[in-house]
C-alpha cells in the first residue's frame, strides 16, 4: 500500500467507523453509506477521493477493513466501529477452542481486574492466529498475546461473531477465560 493509500484508508476508518458526522455523512444501522455521498462529503472537506481510489484502497487493504456492496454503490467498514449510529447484525458463530487477543503489558493489571472490555468500540476484537494478535498488541506498546477460551465461553452462553474479514467479536471477557501465551 502506498503512503497515499494508507492515508485514505485511515480517513475511511475514521468516518466509516468512528465519526461520520465529522464530514456530515450518515451511516445506516448496518454501517453503509452511498459511495457518491461519501465522495461529495469528503471532497467538500478537502479530501480528494474518487471511485477508482476507493476501489483500490478497499482491494489492497491488508486487513480487508472495508466492503463494497454487490451493486457497487455503497461502502461500509466490516468491523471496528465505535459510532453509536451503527449496530451491525452479525451472524452468531461457534468459535474455535481458542482465540487470541493482542494487547500491551501496561494494560494487564487493569485487564486482570476488570476483564477484557470493548472500550469505545462495540466489541472486544479477537483473532484466530497468534501472529495477528501480536501485531495488534504492538500498536499499544510492549505486546503480549492473551489466549481466550472461546469455545468454553460459547458453551456458557456468550455470543461470538465473525466479521467478513475474519476478525472475531465478543462483548466482554471475564478473567477466568483469559490466560497468557507462554512463549
Ligand atoms: C485494551 C485493529 C485496560 C485492549 C486491530 C486494547 C483490531 C483494556 C485496548 C482492532 C481492558 C483497546 C481493535 C481493560 C481491553 N483495561 N485495557 N479492562 N480491556 N483493554 O484499539 O483490540 O488496523 O480499541 O487490550 O486489528 O487493540 O484498526 O482495540 O489494547 O482488530 O483495522 O484496550 O483494530 O484493526 O484498543 O484493536 P483498541 P484493539 P485496524
Explain what the structure shows:
- It is elongated, with a radius of gyration of 17 Å.
- A three-stranded antiparallel sheet has the order 1-3-2.
- It folds into two domains: 75 residues, RNA 2'-phosphotransferase, Tpt1/KptA family, N-terminal domain (Arc Repressor Mutant, subunit A, Orthogonal Bundle), CATH 1.10.10; 82 residues, ADP-ribosylation fold (Alpha-Beta Barrel), CATH 3.20.170.30.
- The model has no long low-confidence stretch (mean pLDDT 96).
- The protein is built from six helices and nine strands, in the order H-E-H-H-E-E-E-H-E-H-E-H-E-E-E.
- With 183 residues, the protein is α+β, with helices and mostly antiparallel strands.
- The two termini are 31 Å apart.
- Helix 1 packs across helix 3.
Amino acid at each position: 500500500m502506498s503512503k497515499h493509500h494508507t492515508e485514505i484508508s485511515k480517513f475511511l476508518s475514521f468516518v466509516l467507523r468512528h465519526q461520520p458526522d465529522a464530514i456530515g455523512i450518515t451511516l445506516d444501522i448496518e454501517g453503509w453509506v452511498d459511495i457518491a455521498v461519501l465522495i461529495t462529503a469528503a471532497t467538500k472537506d478537502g479530501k480528494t477521493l474518487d471511485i477508482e481510489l476507493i476501489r483500490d484502497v478497499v482491494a489492497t487493504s491488508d486487513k480487508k477493513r472495508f466492503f463494497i456492496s454487490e451493486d457497487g454503490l455503497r461502502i461500509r467498514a466490516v468491523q471496528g466501529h465505535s459510532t453509536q449510529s451503527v449496530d451491525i447484525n452479525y451472524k452468531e458463530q461457534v468459535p474455535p477452542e481458542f482465540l487470541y487477543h493482542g494487547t500491551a503489558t501496561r494494560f494487564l493489571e487493569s485487564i486482570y481486574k476488570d476483564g477484557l472490555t470493548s472500550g469505545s468500540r462495540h466489541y472486544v476484537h479477537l483473532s484466530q492466529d497468534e501472529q495477528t494478535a501480536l501485531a495488534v498488541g504492538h500498536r499499544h506498546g510492549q505486546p503480549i498475546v492473551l489466549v481466550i477460551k472461546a469455545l468454553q465461553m460459547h458453551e456458557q452462553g456468550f455470543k461470538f461473531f465473525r466479521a467478513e474479514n475474519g476478525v472475531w467479536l465478543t462483548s466482554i471477557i471475564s478473567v477466568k477465560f483469559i490466560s497468557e501465551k507462554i512463549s
